[in-house]
Amino acid sequence: MARAVVIGAGIGGLTAAVALHLRGWEVTVCERAPSLEPVGAGLAVAANALKALDAIGVGDEIRALSAIQGEGGVRRADGRWMVRTTAEATAARHGDSVVLLRRADLVEALSARLAPGTVRLGTEVLGTDTGAGRVTTAAGELEADLVVAADGIHSPTRAALFPGHPRPRHAGITTWRMLVPGAAAPGRTFESWGRGKVFGVMPLAAGTAYCYATRATPSGGNGGDERAELLRLFGTWHDPIPALLAAVPPESVIRTDAFHLTVPLPAMHRGRVALLGDAAHPMTPNLGQGACQAVEDAVVLAHVADRGAGLSDYTAARLARTARIVARSAAICRATRLRASPAVRLRDMMITLTWRFSPGRMTGAMDEILGWTPPARENGGGGRP
Fold first, then answer.
1. Is residue 101 domain-shared with residue 196, that is, in the same domain?
2. Helix (H/G/I), strand (E/B), else coil: 139
3. Is the Cβ–Cβ distance between 306 and 377 less than 8 Å?
């Protein structure tokens, strides 16, 4: 039986573990954290990632746990709509809607598909031999035919595989994430843009809202009362933003700086080691594709491994696509960072006019991303079960 070691039990790592397990691999997942509990945040799973989850039999379970992204779009800080969409329009164009759920629900659904003992919590990886497929942990060594490095934005494995490559760079924004109790949850999804600031709202299932915010600011400035800071930044914006912030438990606000890879890696593998998700292509959050691309990576990697193909096929299938998405997300990030009033007015006018007179131009720009389909298995087992 072929053996795989997965470094990191986030969404990408767990998806890879499930996909490989379904194809008959013996899988061990090493996670340095003491538990699988992810940060208190929500997640939008777009059509492309839903198709990948369908390929491993998890898609319908995720749909059942989720709310469907209904009417929504992009607004100004005063509440005026610049772009409006519906779930029906998204589904008609891309074959599926966007579903919204807690990250914890997706992590739990994936981990439940693995045999007990597959995930080794509190197990830090100290090093990897790319040629022999040997993974060294504090508890000993593990031998593997395939090592999947899903160890995050600041991946030690990536740094070891490509020591001379530029590391992820601060994207010029700080992000906040929070879950809001159901009493304040709104009925529509939206993202509002102001001068160097963004506030987004996603209604989840079971009467909860996921909110997020970004601000153009240097890295490293945190440690105070983050809810108070959000109220200062967004408290005068349109409804229901002030009410949502007032309902957020202060201790639940998570602040992090955003980093992205400005220069694509030369490859997403070396020897027997494959990089996956944020370890391979960290991106800004503006397209909502970070987790979605990790899920795609995992399904494609399992397909390549199942065929016995070299990992160069994995790089060929994933590197150019993910590099384009990283670049597109960074371009949107730059637009949100604009602060000068004339530039912001011009930006908002261009978005509004483009949507009003040429909506297909905007929706069409997402076709390449959302229209992706997973590779079909040679025995016909690909796609939604």
1. no
2. coil
3. yes
